[in-house]
UniProtKB/TrEMBL annotation:
NCBIfam families hit by this protein: LptF_YjgP
Membrane-spanning parts: 62-80, 101-120, 270-287, 299-321, 327-347
Keywords assigned: Cell inner membrane, Cell membrane, Membrane, Transmembrane, Transmembrane helix, Transport
Location within or outside the cell: Cell inner membrane
Name of this chain's protein: Lipopolysaccharide export system permease protein LptF
Domain of life assignment: Bacteria
Pfam families: LptF_LptG
Keyword Transmembrane helix among record annotations: yes
Single Gene Ontology BP annotation: lipopolysaccharide transport
Entry membrane topology: Multi-pass membrane protein
GO CC terms, sorted: ATP-binding cassette (ABC) transporter complex
Amino acid sequence: MIITRAFYRESGRNFLAIALVLLVVFAFIGMSSLLAKAVRGDFADDIVLTLLGLQLAKQLDLLLPLSFYLGVLLTYGRWYRDSEMIVLAACGIGVDRLLRPLAVAALAVATVVGVLAMLLNPLASNQIEQVKSDSVHRPGLSTMNPGTFTESAGSRRIFYIEQSDPATGEMSGIFASDLATGKEAVIVARRGDVTVDPVTGERHVRLFEGHIYDGSPGKSNMRVIQFRQHDSIQGERQVKQTPSVIEDMPTSALLAMLTRDAWAELHWRVSKPLLVVVLAFWGLLLAHTDTRRGRMGNIFAAILVYFIYSNLLGLGMTLVHKGQVPGPLGLLWVHFLMAALAGIFLWRRSQGRPLLAWPRRRQRA
């Protein structure tokens, strides 16, 4: 049908455009946050792009429902403003006939979102923790930027290097201050490098042509040691991380637990594809307008509905965590409520009635 193909083409174009814009916005926000953490020395700067990609992959299951919702709203909104919906109604194509292509498109997007939420999202979360753990267990000197004083993550060590070669691991102009043992120890070296023991997997830092200043300046325990080569173990061998946060657990593990927190997380993952379907019908409902009205009123109403929907889901999560709502019921009542309201309003719209039956004022005699 021509109308069906036109809807798929225009809604798909709007959906992809909005998703791309939101993805760029999320990327800029995530990049600024990750760069700030990398400068502080929370992790190495060479994993920033990896973490950014994984974080964006985690956010897709929330980004896609909103993008599809707004895409449907803009598509049908243009049809209403250009009087195309009036022409369709005159040809006998009402709101009920538009539900079928909308449902097919919503189910397709919901399937993708379901795969992301149930399978890929936990994998991305575990991969993020693994990458961060690997970065933290690197030697402090290998995680910092040249020309910047950096505190090693999880310790009281401060490092500074003038230049470094990531390809060879060689460094020059090295300064290190260690306060972890309760004593002041400063190491200054002309050059150094990072090596990995092939047997144990431990990382070693070798410093060449430098001095060790051990103790407090001006006190009798102050020692100055000159060395040609100084070796130290700066990192433990990498250990595979197991997910300790319930949000990062695989769906199969949650199904085996079925605790309150597990039920809440399961319902949260299931809610994301359901969100696509329910919001799609709200998009059709809120797109109704005419040529004398602008689109901002519809967009404001759509944002308000999305805000109410998301807050109800947050409230439902809290109730499940506290045990005030049975685990099997979970968040299903929220989706049923929003779907029922959308169904009632769409039925009233198809009958030519106003969405809300306001009481009429009595005329004075």
